[in-house]
Input
Amino acid sequence: MTTTGEEHTAAGTGPWWWVRWRSAVLDAGLALASAAECGGEGVRFAHDAGLPVPIGVVFGVIAGSVLLVRRKWPIAVVLVSIAITPAQMGFLMGLVGLYTLAASELPRRITAALAAMSFAGMLIVTFVRTHQGVMSGDVTMGDWFVPFASITTAIGMTAPPVLLGLYMGARRRLMESLRERADSLERELQLLAERAEERAEWARNEERTRIAREMHDVVAHRVSLMVVHAAALQAIARKDPEKAVKNAALVGDMGRQALTELREMLGVLRSGNGADGRVSAAASSPASLSSSSPSSSSSSSSSSSGSAVAPVPLAAVGVAAAVAASRAADGSRAGAVSGAGPGVGGVVEGPCLAELDELVGQSAAAGMVVALSVEGDVRAYAREIEQTAYRVVQEALTNVHKHAAGAKTYVRLAHRVSEIAMQVENECPPEVGAGSSVRLPSGGNGLLGMKERVAALGGVFVSGPTDAGGFRVSAVIPA
Output
């Protein structure tokens, strides 16, 4: 794995200005070699200058030791090497100093100026020494040799270290930029991972809310009507057997409708073979209880001695189906995030506005006095819009059954140019009535679920009591 810039900086455990101990040992070794070189050349310098040999050696050792600070002050090292060039010492220090200067982050004009000074100093010193050798007879070459040797030596002592330093500096800067880019990419990936986790959590929550809303819409309305019919069946079973048979058939039909809708939802929520088998077993057992025809249920109801026999298995059917659906919903949460669960493309076809008459008829059959009025030209809408409008009316009628049994209810549907509006309003419930004895439990999520459905489509939802003591639910959805 690559080492990022932060890890590279954190690895700086060397002494003083060195990043690593290895760099400190290398510089100490180079400084020792330079001090030995300058110390040895200091003997000849002392003879030429007429100084005591120890003074020349000490001067050379001190000058050569400057190479120890080449990483901290490269300019000082190059200036010292230029200064001692006339004494013909510090060749190693000059090479290493120019390399360090070129590889550093200093401006290129400083590097060029000092390299030119070093080149000029080396050129002059070499020219003078070579010319003296030719004049004294130590060198038996022609006049061309002096400038050739001077230029060649000056180029050889300045160009290679400068070019190598420029290359190494560019390479180091490239590596640092790659480390910084790796750091930024790592941070971006971490941020993306956090955002993906947040989106996944949001998707899970949204899926839980959607499943809970669908289960509430499917179960609450059907089971509420079943309870109302069962209560009426229990009240009239002995007095009016024919009406009791009719109510029992209605309860059976509603139970089968609820099971059909639940089975469609469970088919979407299945995410594997194991879950599929469990859900199928859970859904098939209650289905067999209610698979009898209305005639068979009528005969069994009329032949029974008590009216409480019919509601019991139907209630068991609703509870078993709800438990099966909840298990399937729990098993599909993980699949919803990865695309295997119910999403936009996996939702089954829900109810539509064409079934609104049947919905109102079911409430009327349960004893509610309900009137449906439709305004405007009837037309088709998107599936989500029709399903939401249907669910709003369904939940509003369910709330009337729960909280205002016996109250007259008005359902109004208006088809407008760019929107569809619906309103469900009930009058003040009577003090006593046929359905006043029925107490249906309420989870308090019906209005909230309707508001969430309408708001998700960009609509407006308003609910509240009326001045006459009733309750009104209104919604407008863009078409």
The chain has three domains: 5-143, 200-339, 349-479.
